[in-house]
Amino acid sequence: MGTTFGPDPIAVEIDTALEHLDAGHRVPECKYLDFKEDSSRRGKHGELLLGRREDERAAEQLAGEAACMANTPGGGALIVGVNDKDDEPLLIGTSLDTEWLRRRIYEHTSRALTVDVREVHVHDARLLIVRSPTALEPIKVKGKICWRIGDHCEEIDATSWHHRHQYSIRYDWSAQFSNVSLEEVRPAALDAARAFLQASTDEAAVELVNCTSRELLSRLNAIDGEGKLTNAAALVFVGRPEPCLDYIRRDMPGQDSGDRVRIGGVSLLEQLQRAFAVARAYNPLSHVSSGLVEGQVRQLPERAIREAIVNGLAHREWGLPDATLIEHEGAVLRVTSPGGFFGGVTAENIITHPSTSRNVALTELLASLRIAEREGIGVDRMVGDLLRRGLRMPTIREIDGPYVVTTLSGVDPDVAWTSWLTGMDVPELMQNLRTLMIMRFLTDHLWIDEDILAPYLQVPVEEVHETLELLRQTECDGEPLLRPVRGVPDEALPAFILSKRANKLLDMEYANRGLKRSVPSRAVTARQYARHRGRISTTELGAILGVRASNVGQVLKGLMADGVLQPSSEAMAGRGFHYLWKGDEAS
């Protein structure tokens, strides 16, 4: 028997409407529900056609209607394939493909709206249920914001929308109470909950371990006075018929799975506990003798693995039946989560954007069980844990579907770099995520300025300035860690490089391990610098590369021959001579 989530007013409206349609009765539209034809089923003169699997006109029309529902507090749904003409059959159906329509609605709403599209059959008619979640920011279609007033959509300006929604947009499905009772809680889920709490070593959490089942759920805000669980608790302690997650282990990409965790009908806690255990078994230990982390360490930081998996469950779109996919291939872990970014989060601001979840109660419940971070610093910690191990930063991106994909790589840790950082003996700076990110960027790209760091750190330029000032006051073996790039005009934004001593010590760390530091070529460095700053001179390039200015003239002349640079004067010589950036962004 499946878990019964609810009550859900929109689901109730949908079920009631389908019952009436099945009986052959027309159903009045309401705030949460609207009936729509598939416009591909109408010809130029109003005649009925067979319809298409893919039709842009239909998708655009339905995107506007779905956005209107999303802009309405509580969201809403469309039932597509219902005729509103009295002289024609009530149910005319639709041939539109569900996945195609979901993707096109997402695109037509500027990638802001992820709907759930499912098909139902009433008599011989195929209908589509298009369910829109509540929008946290107004969704525009063709430059307009519409929302539902009674049984129709009306345009509203952004200011009014925000004013009317400030108290009503925080509808949280996971906080609503379900039809699941305390008696249905799985004993194995309670055992898993107590194990997570015990492992946290947090006194307040450990105190919950010995509570009775009812007391535990009550203190977790997971149950009401009548013994009914919230939807979040029903998912966490009882589960759903479909698997919540699908963990697949492969030794390398393309191979058959060596191990798999895909279990439907059991609690999310049991699935998580099993997935964590299997992921740990395939995350081997190695010994690190120097660096920011010493001793026996895992190939991938365990906290980063856990954070990636939990984020893929806590913030996903639970209206979709898909499992959160976890692919563990060699030293790479990739988590693909149903539903796109939410609440203003993007790939460009995910490190610093205030934490926003579709499922606030679920996120808080997982945090109370010490499985997830409550403070909204989980992504920060994931980035920091990887960098301190000398690993690449995680990539977190949105792909068509939409899905959010998080990738962690434990391949080739840069132990020389972490050892160099440790040798500076400035631990407080290395615990600061921004300074750590800047040191990684500077090592890889050789130079920095405030403008190039702002999007990388995902903060305003003013905050970059504060962090740079902190680094400029830092010493490396008795010398300043950073120094300005020579040749930058007084009126221009300063650029910085590592000091000679810092560079020498870094190169020695690589040499001691029989390695050579990997840096961009001279031409690539010059091109990147000139593109970003609009100009470059031999003095600047020589300072960045740590060589004489006279040794890099041919590099810049070569870029001029390539058509990406042009001289600042026809004489191509003299005091202040430099090159200007000429190439376009594709260069």
TrEMBL record:
Residues 30-156 form the Schlafen AlbA-2 domain. InterPro entries: RecG_C_sf, Schlafen_AlbA_2_dom, Schlafen_AlbA_2_dom_sf. It holds the Pfam family SLFN_AlbA_2. PANTHER family: GLPR-RELATED TRANSCRIPTIONAL REPRESSOR, SCHLAFEN ALBA-2 DOMAIN-CONTAINING PROTEIN. This is Putative transcriptional regulator with HTH domain.
